[in-house]
TrEMBL record:
Reported cofactor(s): Cu cation
Positions of the Cytochrome c domain: 241-356
Subcellular localization: Cell membrane; Membrane
Transmembrane segments: 33-58, 79-99
Any Pfam family the entry gives: Cytochrom_C
Membrane topology of this protein: Multi-pass membrane protein
InterPro entries: CcO_II (IPR045187), CcO_II-like_C (IPR002429), Copper_CuA (IPR001505), Cupredoxin (IPR008972), Cyt_c-like_dom (IPR009056), Cyt_c-like_dom_sf (IPR036909), Cyt_c_oxidase_su2 (IPR014222), Cyt_c_oxidase_su2_TM_dom (IPR011759)
Identification of the protein by name: Cytochrome c oxidase subunit 2
Keywords annotated in UniProt: Copper, Electron transport, Heme, Iron, Membrane, Metal-binding, Oxidoreductase, Respiratory chain, Translocase, Transmembrane, Transmembrane helix, Transport
UniProt family annotation: Belongs to the cytochrome c oxidase subunit 2 family.
PANTHER family, alphabetized: CYTOCHROME BO(3) UBIQUINOL OXIDASE SUBUNIT 2, CYTOCHROME C OXIDASE, SUBUNIT II
Length: 368
């Protein structure tokens, strides 16, 4: 029964997180949808017209219907004027529509909530530049983007390596994430919910595994969550607990077996871990996805240990080293990871799971 319920729930979630641009959750998307409909409708009309003319001509001038070759002539001014005028009118019409939509969709994002989007092979980091954590540094979250609904949000998109594409189809508007280029544009959502985001630019081995979630919350709820994120400090584990051993390994690794520290690459707010090479793990225990949206919910829980043991084997191209001593391919080179015991891996997992926002700030709580 529970299994059936879970399956049903998963079904609902998938239904809600459709990847159709026709499932519109923003004014932005509505504009694009209207333009698509016009472009498709005009194309269909032209296609029918051209097909009809073609079949008519072929039928009418069949060789076996005529004894002599038909009249030979060169040029037809009337027809040529029409052939130029009609496409020009169509192009002008579509241009006016496009320019109008562009003006609506690209206002100066002064009043908007600002969120910085960083794309890297093969994950996302979302930083809230207007919110400095009490423990220092800007509030940030890996792979799960929170935004307030029914108000403008200015996303500034960039890349830390190759070109990626930021695209949440229900919200609309793909944006290229390019290294050394910061592109800002304004989006809004008109209903709270979870929307699926994907990388839309072929970027390497795990392009297809470079996903994210957009969690759009009602303004009040968003404020509560962001305030909790600002005040958040990673918990101090009790001495001797699995979490405490996990924290120790997280910060220092195990140099004698070649196991690199996690802190060299990842940030955890309120600890000395301030790495910027990988996604921010400050609220890892609250997150529902793992491996940049590769797994969700129970599956994400289940995959955490294999992930920590050998991330590049479960996600091709992942730049995280292995921790079970196995070899892995990184940027075209064969490397060998450090070694942690199963117990040590599970201590790190316990520590990561303890990195949780307070219950009332769990942004997944009200999500269907
Ligand atoms: Cu990043 Cu495709």
């Amino acid at each position: 029964m529970a299994l059936f319920g879970a399956a049903l729930l998963t079904g609902c979630q998938q239904a809600q997180q459709s990847l159709s641009i026709g499932d519109m959750a923003s004014a932005f998307n509505r504009e694009i949808w209207v333009m698509s409909i016009w472009a498709i409708a005009l194309s269909v009309i032209i296609f029918i017209g051209v097909s009809f003319a073609l079949f008519y001509t072929v039928q009418k001038f069949r060789e076996d219907k005529h004894d002599a070759p038909p009249a030979q002539f060169h040029g037809n001014n009337k027809l040529e004027v029409w052939l130029v005028a009609v496409p020009v009118v169509i192009v002008i019409f579509l241009s006016v529509l496009t320019v109008r939509s562009m003006a609506i969709l690209n206002p100066t994002p002064d009043q908007a909530t600002k969120i910085d989007v960083l794309a890297k092979q093969f994950w996302w980091n979302f930083t809230y530049p207007e919110t400095t954590a009490d423990a220092g540094g800007k509030v940030a979250n890996g792979n799960e983007l929170l935004m307030p609904t029914r108000q403008p949000v200015a996303l500034t998109v960039t890349s830390g390596d190759v070109i990626h594409g930021f695209w949440a189809p229900n919200i609309g508007g793909q944006r290229a994430a390019m290294p050394a280029v910061q592109k800002t544009w304004q989006v809004d959502t008109d209903r709270a919910g979870v929307y699926q985001g994907n990388c839309s630019q072929l970027c390497g081995a795990s392009h297809a595994n470079m996903r994210y979630k957009v969690v759009a919350l009602e303004q009040e709820r968003y404020n509560t969550v962001l305030a909790a994120m600002k005040a958040y400090r990673a918990p101090e584990p009790a001495a001797g607990s699995a979490e405490a051993r996990g924290l120790q390994l997280f910060l220092q690794g195990k140099p004698e077996t070649g196991a690199a520290s996690c802190a060299g690459c990842h940030r955890v707010q309120g600890t000395s871990a301030a790495g910027q090479v990988g996604p921010d793990l400050s609220f890892f225990g609250t997150r529902r996805t793992l491996g940049a949206g590769m797994w969700e919910s129970e599956k994400a829980q289940e995959m955490l240990i294999p992930w920590l043991k050998h991330a590049p084997r479960v996600k091709p191209g992942a730049l995280m080293p292995t921790y079970d001593g196995s070899e892995y391919m990184s940027k075209g080179k064969m490397l060998k990871g450090g070694t942690l015991t199963d117990a040590e891996i599970s201590d790190i997992a316990a520590y990561l799971r303890s990195l949780k926002l307070p219950e009332e700030a769990d942004y997944w709580r009200d999500v269907p």
